[in-house]
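Handoff note, outgoing to incoming analyst
You'll be picking up this chain. Sequence as last confirmed:
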Amino acid sequence: MINRCCRLHPARCGVELRRAGHGGARGLGRAAPAVPTPGGVGSLCRDRLLPLPVPGKVLEQPQTGHRSWRWHWWHKAEVLPRAGTQGVPSQPCPALSQGHRDTGLLFPRGERQAWLWGVMEALGGLASILLSPELPSSHWNRFQESFANAAVCGKLIGARLQNHPQAPLQTQSPMSCPIPNSPFLLLQKPPLPPGGHRTCHRCHRDAAARGGLAAGGRPCDAKDFGHGSLVCACSATYCDTLDPLVLPAPGSYVKYESSKAGKRLERSEGSFQHNAKSPDFHLTLDTTQRYQKVKGFGGSITDAAAINIQSLSKAAQNHLLRSYFSEEGIEYNLVRVPMASTDFSIRLYTYADAEGDFELRHFNLTEEDTHMKIPILQAAQAVAKRPLSLYASPWTSPVWMKTNGAMTGRGTLKGSPGDKYHRAWAKYFVRFLDEYAKHNLTFWAVTAGNEPTAGEIVFYPFQCLGFSPEHQRDFIAQDLGPALANSSHRHVQLIILDDQRVMLPYWAEVVLKDPVAASYISGIGIHWYLDFLAPIDLTLSITHHLFPDYFLLSTEASTGSYFWEPRVVLGGWERGSKYSHSILSNLNNYVTGWTDWNLALDMEGGPNWSKNYVDSPVIVDSSKDVFYKQPMFYHLGHFSKFIPEGSQRVGLAVSKKCHRCDLEHSAFLRPDGAVVLVVLNRSPMDVSFGVSDPHVGFIEAVAPSDSIQTFLWKQPA
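Most recent structure output, in case you need it:
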């Protein structure tokens, strides 16, 4: 089947959605390629759809006046070019929307039945929304319009079919084409070819000619798994790259763009103007307004991530780590390191499982550390130009320290702060830092514990250790704070909460209003899983204004974690958009950095001993020695590569004359004096906008539908 890249850019691939046997794509002088089928037979399967007068977007004017129509449940009808034919024109069966998924739709002949089909199609679209929460909320707003279009389209098609009840089908393929003279026409999206994805090599060559991912960088090896956008495949022999960033000359800007349509950090340049009319959406930079400084962006080296990275050949491993950490990649500088096991481990363990070992004489790192995580961290440091900031988080204490005697379920530390159990648990942190230091790995920070509220939940399914804010406050004041301060790791910063932001500002008020505890604390960690319950201005902004001397850091996020979501969606653009939306919202509310969850997972979203599978920016298929860089990966790169540590958020005034042209955005001043502007368009339509820098000039720009852009330019010295 024609892949999504080719469908979006038919001229690049020599493909025209047209009746088979009528010449090649216009202007290319070659025949349209055959459609591969599971049996290896290639042809174009044609149905009896007729040109219909339904309003839609003309993609290309047909030579003969014939047009064929394709309707998607989330789009208006689109006019497709068709070569001239006698009798009834035909349309290739593959021209079906992703909204159909992989199921067939019955298309009745006749106006009444066709109207019912239109309604059924629209209801199918609604079901797709309900079953696919990763779709943007804007699809809800478009549903009513789609419903009306479906009904009209169905009626018109039915009427046309009544006028031509015996139109021949001329089916040439063993695919799911309709049976001749059947009262129904079966429309079905052909299955994926063997291997589960499609490749458009012409698109790759065109990407290279355009500059690919960046001028001189290697272009994306694009694969389409049928989920709406593309992934970039990497192997031992090939992986897409970016050139090191070179800032443009004064008066010019550089733009990096990724889109649902297939761009991946594609680089272009432009010049500032001095006289330009103001568009409907206008951003004005104000570098005199200064906000928080940025710590950075990164991900977590869980046991699962390490297992997947090491399942690849050495050459592929190197490509993966360089993609994340090097100048030719997206230059992560934050790495979260779990202390012992998490749910993303293949077994439950801690570093001190010997019963009653209060002095931790039997404390030992495990093979997961010495053979997996530590070598990967050392390799990441070796390829990174920027210094890496590591921070550690424990999930649970040894079971002999816990009230419930188990790593899972409701349980907290035995005793009370200041006693032998709490002193031993504080010492556990210091011993962990000691052991990693022996491998030349030092830490920037530790969190007091991952999701302390989880340990207050009965039957919680994986590792946890419960703390209330009062308990955490007293543990830090009496045990953990002094233990760190009196060790060789007194420089290590301490982060509280490391849990859902819905707990703010209450948690911070309880802990930080104690002067002793507050003296040991540097920041507050937040997770994103319950953000829909916690308005950002009532949590993060208020917390910042109450405690401006303590940084806010997003310490964990992942998609596919809700029970109703598919776990891994290869090529899911909306999941990347969710990441960018979260990052921009957090940055615009005083958060200093953003950390993803697993750096890499397998095709199932694991391994995970509790089967709590999720998605990841990098998915590894070890059976093929390949890994796939998801849209999430490139969304993260729009921030991590261009907003280095030490950058500072600056003012960005918005002037908007239209209600629907909404963009998300944030601007920063880098340590080298350059300006960075990130613009996210999650809507289904292009948005024209302008950017004014009073020191430089004016940019006229367009944010394509479902896209993210990063602009960089120099200001006068």
